[in-house]
Specification:
With 268 residues, the protein is an alpha/beta fold. The protein has one domain: Alpha/Beta hydrolase fold, catalytic domain (Rossmann fold, 3-Layer(aba) Sandwich). The chain is built from eleven helices and eight strands. Strands 1-2-4-3-5-6-7-8 form an eight-stranded mixed beta sheet, with helices on both faces. Strand 7, helix 9 and strand 8 form a beta-alpha-beta unit. The longest helix is centred in the N-terminal third of the chain and has 15 residues.
C-alpha cells in the first residue's frame, strides 16, 4: 500500500493514467474511492491522476487533533513534494475545494490550473449548509446506525432523480462502507471548514480557474459558485442544471470533459 510521510502522518496515495499530473482533493469524510470509477476512467484518458486520502481518513494515518484548511493544503503540497511533482493541475471538491483555494493562494507555483467544485469561500456573502440539513446529518451520524447515516448522506448529496436511479445508491454505499471515517475526525474536519474564509484573498489567485457546481446542491448552494467565480480574476463558471453536490457522480463524462478542456486551453 503506497504511502508517504507528510507532517507526522502517512498519506495513502495512488497514481494512475498518463499525461500531465492532476491532483484530486476530496471533500469532508471522503477518501480516494469516493471519486467513483466512472469519473476516474474518464479523467485518466487525459491526465496522470494523483489521488490521496486526507490525514486520518481512508488508508491514511493521523488523529483528530485540531487542524485548519491551511494545514490540509500543506499536506497536499507535501504529497507533491514527496512524489517529485513540481506542478500539477488541481481539482478540489467541497472541503477539497477549500483546500485547493488555499493551495493556489499559498503555493501558486505548484498549480498549473485550478478546478473548484461544489465548494465555497466563506465570508459574509457565502451560504453555508442549511441548519435542517446539518441537523439531520448529525443525528444520522450520532445514531450509530450505519444504514441511516449512509442514506441520509446519499439523499443530501445527489439530486432526487439520480438518487432514485437503479444501482446508484448501492455503488455509493459500497464505497462508503469500505473505509468509514471516525466521528472525531469528521468533527475535526467540520471545525476546519467552519473557520475557512478566503473571500478577501481570492482576487490574488492568478492561475486559470474553473468553477463547477450543480444547481440542486443541498450541501452548499450554487450561489456560492457564483461568488467564488466572481472573486477570482478570469474564472470560468459552469453550472450543471438539476445536479446535486456529487456532480462528478451524476455527470462524470461532462465534468471530465470540462476539466480536460480547461487544462488544454492553457496550452493553446
Amino acid at each position: 500500500m503506497p504511502t508517504l510521510p507528510v507532517a507526522g502522518t502517512e498519506l495513502y496515495y495512488e497514481r494512475r493514467g498518463a499525461g500531465e499530473p492532476l491532483l484530486l482533493i476530496q471533500g469532508m469524510s471522503g477518501h480516494s474511492l469516493h471519486w467513483g470509477e466512472d469519473f476516474l476512467r474518464e479523467l485518466e484518458r487525459d491526465f496522470e491522476l494523483v489521488l490521496y486520502d486526507h490525514r486520518g481518513v481512508g488508508r491514511s494515518t493521523g488523529d483528530a487533533a485540531p487542524f485548519e484548511i491551511a494545514d490540509l493544503a500543506a499536506d497536499a503540497a507535501g504529497l507533491l513534494d514527496g512524489l517529485g511533482i513540481e506542478r500539477a493541475h488541481v481539482l478540489g471538491i467541497s472541503m477539497g475545494g477549500m483546500i485547493a483555494q488555499e493551495l493556489a493562494l499559498t503555493r501558486p507555483e505548484r498549480v498549473l490550473t485550478l478546478a473548484l467544485g461544489c465548494t465555497y469561500c466563506g465570508g459574509p456573502r457565502s451560504t453555508f449548509t442549511e441548519d435542517r440539513v446539518v441537523n439531520e446529518l448529525a443525528m444520522a451520524i450520532m445514531s450509530g446506525d450505519q444504514d441511516r447515516k449512509l442514506r441520509a448522506g446519499w439523499g443530501f448529496n445527489v439530486s432526487t432523480g439520480f438518487a432514485a436511479g437503479e444501482g446508484n445508491y448501492e455503488r455509493f454505499a459500497d464505497v462508503a462502507m469500505q473505509y468509514p471515517v471516525a466521528v472525531p475526525m469528521v468533527m475535526a474536519q467540520v471545525q476546519a471548514v467552519i473557520k475557512h474564509d478566503t473571500s478577501a484573498r481570492l482576487a490574488e489567485i492568478s492561475v486559470p480557474t474553473l468553477v463547477v457546481h450543480g444547481t440542486d446542491d443541498q450541501m452548499l448552494a450554487a450561489a456560492n459558485a457564483e461568488i467564488v467565480a466572481g472573486l477570482i480574476p478570469g474564472a470560468r463558471l459552469e453550472l450543471l442544471d438539476g445536479v446535486g453536490h456529487l456532480f462528478f457522480w451524476e455527470q462524470p463524462e461532462r465534468v471530465a470533459e470540462l476539466i480536460a478542456e480547461h487544462a488544454a486551453a492553457t496550452r493553446a
